[in-house]
């Protein structure tokens, strides 16, 4: 059980007119009341908000005009006493308030510590806690709604349901083994076990299928634009950035910060990574050869392969077709405003059923069709997150895969007619993997590591 009182600025830094400094813990109210001039905070009702001033302890000067919310445990996010101080004087004043609170004995919260407490105090489960983190990082509205849903506990609900089914079968087997004399407990037959494991297996598979989409919504579609020099790659890049909301984020890397640009195309966040030279690559094949190009290109989720309508197909183009064979790509025949010199039949043949669109980026023609094709590649059309429960977290996907594998071993055992007490070992493992998703069977170190990824102040 945590016993100290933590504090942090819980709104994004540098943005917005209002910033909130949050306090949580047994001393939250007394720390706040020591530096607050206004109503006696120790005496106000829970869940009320009060106007007043934060005072510099040493000089008695007013540091900031504030609105203070007082919330008593347990009906708070952390289930501890919580005080939220709404400041409006910009980052300098907000930081000053934080310092004053720290000087009065509150400790600076570690990243994710508020959420961690909410989890440890049973307010939310692990998948919900992770959803809070996703929410902070959500790159598009759709990613946001996926995160919201997860926070809602939908994923948890499903996982719990599967675990319950598995637990019942395991318990059933246990009873059969421990109390063979109980005639009224039907013996768990291979047939029953087969049915239950099949049921859960099918559900996990379904979750994994939507997981891929969820992951993309969360992390963006790693996208590479390729083609010979002068076909229009830069123009395409510019068009996509101009037509859509571009989000630039800095990703702290090990050696240097990588700048990633996100472009929101119909709710699909394209991640145009400016690294390893795969974002916009002139003559990649010339430089590193077909095989190595393939290796590089394999790392992207989507390749936009641009050709020039005004020129005949060259050897270089053909090599590019070889390099993208079997990968997810869209062929873009650009410069349709100029005379057609490209052999369309040949291009069609090489494209092997992948989407092909024609554009004139100069005249801004065909861009809509291209965006539709991009959205279709992964979501078979416009997606509606409204009725999908997504699993979008890499850790969840990993655990679901492990659960599925363990369950498959159990199913194999059943088919081979293995004794029930052997089969149930794998069923129990499945149950444990699923439990890790919602934090039931997760180890402490895992929990610490997860919460440390949170933004400060959440
Ligand atoms: P990159 O080398 O593949 O990045 O090609 P750029 O985007 O730099 O374009 C090369 C040249 O082609 C520029 O002068 C563009 O203005 C021009 N260009 C791009 N798209 C079109 C188009 O659809 N029609 C015509 N006529 N010119 C285009
Ligand atoms: Zn270029």
TrEMBL record:
> Record-annotated residues binding GTP?
230-235, 249-255, 274-277
In this chain, Mg(2+) is annotated as bound at 234, 255
Residue numbers binding (6S)-5-formyl-5,6,7,8-tetrahydrofolate = 22, 84, 123, 458
Span of the secretion signal?
Answer: none
Q: Which organism is it from?
A: Virgibacillus sediminis
- Localization per Swiss-Prot or TrEMBL: Cytoplasm
Family, according to the entry, reads as follows: Belongs to the TRAFAC class TrmE-Era-EngA-EngB-Septin-like GTPase superfamily. TrmE GTPase family.
Give the binding site residues for K(+): 230, 249, 251, 254
Q: What class of enzyme is it?
A: hydrolase
Q: What interactions and quaternary structure are annotated?
A: Homodimer. Heterotetramer of two MnmE and two MnmG subunits.
For activity, the cofactor(s) needed are: K(+)
Is Hydrolase given among the entry's keywords? yes
Record text on cofactor binding: Binds 1 potassium ion per subunit.
Q: What residue stretches are annotated with the TrmE-type G domain?
A: 220-379
This chain's function reads: Exhibits a very high intrinsic GTPase hydrolysis rate. Involved in the addition of a carboxymethylaminomethyl (cmnm) group at the wobble position (U34) of certain tRNAs, forming tRNA-cmnm(5)s(2)U34.
| EC number(s) recorded for this UniProt protein | 3.6.-.-
Descriptive protein name:
tRNA modification GTPase MnmE
What InterPro entries would the database entry show? G_TrmE (IPR031168), GTP-bd (IPR006073), GTP-bd_TrmE_N (IPR018948), GTPase_MnmE (IPR004520), MnmE_dom2 (IPR027368), MnmE_helical (IPR025867), P-loop_NTPase (IPR027417), Small_GTP-bd (IPR005225)
Q: Which UniProt keywords apply?
A: Cytoplasm, GTP-binding, Hydrolase, Magnesium, Metal-binding, Nucleotide-binding, Potassium, tRNA processing
């Amino acid at each position: 059980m945590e016993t100290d009182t933590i504090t942090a600025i819980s709104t994004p830094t540098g943005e917005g007119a209002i910033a909130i400094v949050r306090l949580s813990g047994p001393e939250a109210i007394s720390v706040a009341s020591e530096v607050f001039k206004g109503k006696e905070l120790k005496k106000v009702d829970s869940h009320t908000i009060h106007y007043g001033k934060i005072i510099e302890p040493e000089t008695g000067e007013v540091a900031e005009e504030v609105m203070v919310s007082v919330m008593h445990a347990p009906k708070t996010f952390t289930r501890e006493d919580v005080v939220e101080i709404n400041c409006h004087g910009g980052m300098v004043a907000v930081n000053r308030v934080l310092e004053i609170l720290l000087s009065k004995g509150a400790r600076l919260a570690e990243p994710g510590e508020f959420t961690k407490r909410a989890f440890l105090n049973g307010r939310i489960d692990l998948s919900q806690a992770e959803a809070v983190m996703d929410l902070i990082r959500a790159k598009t509205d759709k990613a946001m709604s996926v995160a919201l849903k997860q926070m809602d506990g939908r994923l948890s609900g499903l996982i719990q349901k599967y675990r319950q089914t598995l637990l019942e079968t395991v318990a059933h087997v246990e009873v059969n083994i421990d109390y063979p004399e109980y005639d009224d407990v039907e013996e768990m037959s291979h047939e029953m076990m087969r049915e239950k494991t099949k049921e859960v297996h099918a559900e996990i598979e379904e979750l994994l299928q939507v997981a891929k989409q969820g992951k993309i919504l969360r992390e963006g579609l790693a996208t590479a634009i390729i083609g010979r020099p002068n076909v229009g790659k830069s123009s395409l890049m510019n068009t996509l950035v101009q037509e859509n909301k571009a989000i630039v984020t800095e990703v702290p890397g090990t050696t240097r910060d990588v700048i990633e640009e996100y472009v929101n195309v119909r709710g699909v966040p394209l991640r145009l990574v400016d690294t390893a030279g795969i974002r916009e690559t002139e003559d990649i094949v010339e430089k590193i050869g077909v095989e190595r190009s393939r290796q590089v290109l394999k790392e992207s989720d989507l390749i936009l392969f641009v050709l020039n309508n005004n020129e005949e197909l060259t050897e270089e183009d053909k090599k590019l077709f070889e390099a993208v064979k079997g990968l997810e790509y869209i062929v873009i025949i650009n410069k349709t405003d100029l005379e057609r010199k490209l052999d369309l039949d040949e291009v069609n043949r090489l494209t092997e059923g992948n989407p092909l669109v024609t554009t004139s980026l100069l005249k801004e023609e065909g861009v809509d069709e291209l965006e539709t094709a991009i959205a279709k590649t992964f979501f078979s059309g416009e997606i509606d997150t409204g009725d999908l429960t997504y699993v979008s977290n890499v850790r969840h996907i990993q655990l679901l895969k492990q659960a599925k594998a363990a369950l498959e071993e159990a199913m194999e055992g059943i088919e081979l007619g293995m004794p029930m007490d052997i089969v149930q070992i794998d069923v129990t493992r499945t149950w444990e993997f699923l439990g890790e998703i919602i934090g039931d069977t997760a180890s402490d170190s895992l929990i610490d590591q997860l919460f440390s990824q949170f933004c400060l102040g959440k």
